[in-house]
Batch of 2 targets.
Target 1
Amino acid sequence: MALGRNRRRERGVDYWPGFVDALSTLLLAIMFLLTVFVLAQFILGREISGRDEVLTRLNSQIAELTQLLALEKSGKQDSDDALANLQASLAQSESERSRLQALLERGAGTSDAANQRIGTLSEQLDQEKQVSARAMSQVELLNQQIAALRAQIAAVEAALQASEAKDDASQAKIADLGRRLNVALAQRVQELNRYRSDFFGRLREILSDRQNIRIVGDRFVFQSEVLFPVGGADLDEAGRAEMDKLASAVIELAQEIPAEINWVLRVDGHTDNSPLSGAGRYRDNWELSSARATSVVKYLISKGVPANRLVAAGFGEYQPIAEGDTPDARSQNRRIELKLTER
């Protein structure tokens, strides 16, 4: 009767692995979303920093152009004042010349002093005309420079407006990309979780008759004694039979998972902490655990499982699930773990 009660207790439903599976999956999804958020913030920070540098350079150019425009305006005002003075002097000279010519026409026998005075005034008048012409040329050049500066300022303002519009568009694009990425990631995590649950459910059905095959968290665990001889890495007859069941389940699952989900079945080899003698085929537990994981992967490939969906890894004695050096603890640590995950 005690044996019957123990069997019924062992066959009871254990909800704890499923809870651990859901909790670990939720934590992985949260960590991934936080990583995406930090990456988006980093990209946005770089975009804003680049925009600030462009705005600083544009503001500096506008300040320089404004100073140049003020200087040009001041120079133009000085030229206008000089031109006005020259024109007034020219008008005065013209008036003096007209008066002298009138005196020359009214009377004869004008003295040599008057003629000399007229010649001097004529020379002065010609010089003032030349000065006036040069001043007019300078004024025209200043007008051209002012027009060019105004055109440059307009171009800088247009570039500034375009930069601000581009920055707004970039921020909107980043926000939209982040939303779409979050939705896509959430969908892929949900899909992979569903297929992982289906996969473990099928393995439970086909391997439920073995007590030394169990689920720990999000991993399916085979004790090494089920698959390998002591100290060896070649699958024995019983191990090949179990791997045949596993290969059928993986092949069936591979046909159902959409191609856009980049999944892999990771095969991890673990040993206990008992050192190898050194006289055998493997020098240490690292080599033994890696060889056992590789042996499982190669056998699954030979049974039709796609090679690109399998990963082998050896962990030696350094990832135990049971502490201590008792025979039971060492037996639990000698294991092959299977985990369905993303590449």
Target 2
Amino acid sequence: MTAAELGPEDVVLEIGAGIGNLTERLAKKAKKVIAVELDPVLVRVLHDRFDEVENIEIVPGDALKIEFPEFDKVVSNLPYSISSEITFKLLRYKFKLGILMYQYEFAARMVSSPNCKDYSRLTVDTCYFADASILMKVPKSAFQPVPEVDSAVVKLIPRPSPFEVKDQAFFMDFVAAVFSQRRKKLKNAILNMNHVLKISNIKEIIARLPEDMMSKRAENLTPEELAKVANQIIDLKKLPV
């Protein structure tokens, strides 16, 4: 919690508040805590504990479906089953800082580098939206009952993309498509996934793309290089082929 650098002006979002142990600690530091919890039984526990605490707002519901109130920071032990979906929902909101606990393997993919086994669609998508770093690995023995996996605390700082993307929706689809064929060269990955990308005259467009890029796999290209290829496809789609 120290890494969140909470101050008396911060409004903190907590997803998956559970019985409220972290909620209580956050409320002692922050101006306000918005505690989101899906389980009705746990929501009742939260109300029993905190209904008299003025700076805690309890929000019952599915974090993937509800709209979050405005917040400055997010500090959460996220439900691992929704790690990807909830992270990218969060990144659609404006906030300063996130301190989030994930399954270790998921966190490793968020912060990986090209040419590494953990480098993935998740790495590229995270890089587009935010700076991510692992603050600490948390062994499964730290929890009771002991889970099957280790965890990691990740620091997430939203910021503008460090590289140009001309069409965000296409870029996201493109990254998903080429990483679904990660053992294929980029040329073949695009051809194989064109039923998703829906690029007219795909063979002619690929012929105009740089061969040094097309002969590599997605896992060998930086996020910026993948964005350049996506941008070139967008430009070529506008030209007569």
